[in-house]
Amino acid sequence: MSFRRALALAACGLAGGSVLFSAVGVGKQPARGAGGDAETRSAGAAAAAPAPGLLLLPPAAASCPAAPGWAERAAGAGGYWDSNWDRREPLALINRKKKNEETGEEELASRLDHCKTKATRHIFLIRHSQYNLDGRIDKDRTLTQLGREQAELTGRRLASLGLKFDTIIHSSMTRAMETTDIISKHLPGVKKISTDLLREGAPIEPVPPVSHWKPEAVQYYEDGARIEAAFRNYIHRADAKQEEDSYEIFVCHANVIRYIVCRALQFPPEGWLRMSLNNGSITHLVIRPSGRVALRTLGDTGFMPPDKITRT
Fold it and tell me: Which of 119, 104, 63 is nearest to 287 (CA)?
């Protein structure tokens, strides 16, 4: 039995409070008295406090739930990474049965090279700035004065990176559009694209659940499909035709960003609500040609003075 399995079983017994343990010697001999004979203990004392050097094991008949995956996995086995998570793995893009008409041989190597990604994509996910929570409809939920100042600070920060940004893709909601307009003043010439896919919503029911936010099941059903579509449409390795690294900005919402981060890193997407993002924060994802994904920053607002930081 592996150490992790034994640990899980022991934890199960202790938590349940009803599993009896047997004492099994693991090598240490009992102490001897002055006369050379082994010291004796009463049966009650032995049951109350087992001697040092004994390993407690549950009896074979004890009932215990199955151990979690982390306890069963062999040490050093690591997790699982789907290299074709974006369906752009070169081997998945070619017809391996196709033969060269003249030689009859499969030109696998040349066709693989044609499908291989060469460039790295840098994805900057920006949460919109603080907005008016009293607005009854979206057009009334405009940025506050502080929110406009936050967008200015975010725009300056992005400009200070000295990167050649390709596009700014933003949610079609008012607060995201206004944040984009302010940021874009610091990045002249960068094309702006609006999309409904990045609108705020309920991506998937969070685990563990929270009491203060409980959308109806139909909202998860509708919003979840749309936000997943946004992930599949925008978050993937570069096209094989792309020669140079790209730097793209996405201005959207906290729920959308947190879900995208979980999906991109192949973490359980139900854990998206375990993270928090400040208004105007910058999250930086890197997608390598191999399909490997790295999170450079999550919700960075270190460029803002403390009195300008909010999370509404």
Answer: 119
Distances 41 to 20, 22, 31, 32, 207 between C-alpha atoms, Å? 20, 17, 11, 12, 50
**Interval 185-206: pLDDT, tens:** 999 999 999 999 999 999 999 9
Q: What distance in Å separates the CA atoms of residue 312 and residue 187, rounded to the nearest whole number?
A: 26
Per DSSP, which regions of 172-227 are E strands? 191-195
Q: Does the pLDDT value for residue 5 go beyond 60?
A: no
**Strand order of the sheet with strand 282-287?**
191-195, 167-171, 246-252, 121-127, 282-287, 293-300
Cα-based angle 57, 61, 62 (whole degrees, multiple of 5): 60
What are the pLDDT digits (tens) for 78-93?
Answer: 578 999 999 998 877 6
Model confidence at 17: pLDDT above 90: no
In the numeric block, which tokens belong to residue 97?
Answer: 């049965």
Encode pLDDT of 83-122 as tens digits. Answer: 999 999 887 767 656 655 555 455 666 667 678 889 999 9
Residue among 45, 61, 46 at smallest CA distance from 13? 61
Distance CA 200, CA 124 (A): 17
